[in-house]
Specification:
The structure is a single chain. The protein has a domain of 132 residues. 86% of the residues lie in helices and 0% in strands. It has 7 helices and no strands. The model has no long low-confidence stretch (mean pLDDT 88). This is HdeD family acid-resistance protein. InterPro entries: Acid_resist_chaperone_HdeD (IPR052712), DUF308_memb (IPR005325).
Length: 191
């Protein structure tokens, strides 16, 4: 375990608790969280489009400039649409989440089956099956699932990430305390 992690375990624990609380709040208010994410994606698209327009000035050819203008226009257009109608953006994000869960689930299942005979190969199949099952459930509930899916999944991810940060922090604390005790024993034994 790194010296930096051992020395800063308190900050990692505090950050983990804060991230976990934000995740819990996102789970408790999934629609608001989903709309916020939709608006944030819209903001990023608009910023990306502006950067594409700025990139026109560094283009070395007319073709490059035209591509920059085209990409900038599409990005800004998509960002404005998300800002004007974040609920439609939330539905689109939900479809992307469904596609991601389905594709990654199938890949994990295939990978797990191809690793049959290796230790713990079954966990990849189980993980992939859960992803496919979630995708099917979200699709079956669509468009109603759009109101909660992105927010709940984002919140769950933050909650799990925050929890893991706290676990790592306290593991680093234990290692740090054990090293301090060993050093204390060495100093006491040398005296």
């Amino acid at each position: 375990m790194s010296d930096s992690l051992q020395a800063n375990w308190r900050w990692l624990a505090i950050a983990g608790v804060i991230i976990g609380i934000i995740g819990l709040l996102a789970i408790l208010a999934p629609f608001v969280t989903g709309l916020s994410i939709s608006l944030l994606v819209g903001l990023f698209l608009i910023a990306s489009g502006i950067l594409n327009f700025i990139g026109v000035f560094s283009a070395r050819s007319w073709g490059g400039a035209i591509w920059q203008i085209l990409l900038g226009g599409i990005s800004i257009g998509a960002g404005v649409i998300l800002f004007v109608n974040p609920v439609a953006g939330l539905a689109t994000l939900t479809i992307l989440v469904i596609a991601y869960l389905l594709v990654s689930g199938v890949v994990e299942i295939v990978m797990g089956l191809s690793l049959r005979g290796e230790p713990n190969w079954f966990f990849a199949v189980v993980s992939g099956s859960i992803g496919v099952l979630l995708a099917i459930m979200l699709w079956a509930g669509f468009p109603a699932s759009a109101a909660w899916a992105v927010g709940v999944l984002f919140g769950a991810n933050l909650l799990v990430s925050g929890s893991m940060m706290v676990i790592f922090a306290y593991s680093a604390r234990r290692v740090s305390k054990a090293l301090e005790m060993d050093q204390g024993a060495d100093i006491g034994g040398a005296a």
